[in-house]
Amino acid sequence: MIKELMSKDLVVLDTNSDIYTVARIMKEKDIGFIPFCKNNKIVGVLTDRDIVTKILANKGSKIAGYLSTNIIKISSDASVDEALDIMKKHKIKRLLVEEDKKLVGILSLSDLIYHDEKNLIKTLQNIYAINKNSDYYDVKVNEFEL
Fold first, then answer.
1. CATH tag for 2-127 (out of 3.30.230.80, 3.40.50.620, 1.10.10.60, 3.10.580.10)
2. Strand pairing of 102-108 and 41-47?
3. Using one digit for the tens of pLDDT, what is the confidence trace for 91-101?
4. Rounded to an integer, what distance in angstroms lies between the CA atom of residue 40 and that of residue 93?
């Protein structure tokens, strides 16, 4: 059961948080994923990558409007295979874990690293099977010194 593997030390922030507070907390806690709440209900999540690709790239300072609001969760009684299947289907690396409709933990791929290696590898292959970004600079071999 994932209840035994999930992280229970949670950081949840309010949707009115500014980006600098969020980034500072991520740095202090060494985390890259935070759920956000409004009126005591989880309404979205934000990753460290979201900060760079969504907020900073658009010169934003508040997180409102940039949260991923498609909340993907799993029951604390679920199996590792169920968790990996959900991660694979949605191409995500973390799941919110619920119990009695309450947030009780976060399950990440790193929590599953020593369980069911075969399914874990398939999940990783699926998550990272994306189109490569085109390079910003059109460079040639030997153009840059090291």
1. 3.10.580.10
2. unpaired
3. 899 999 999 99
4. 24
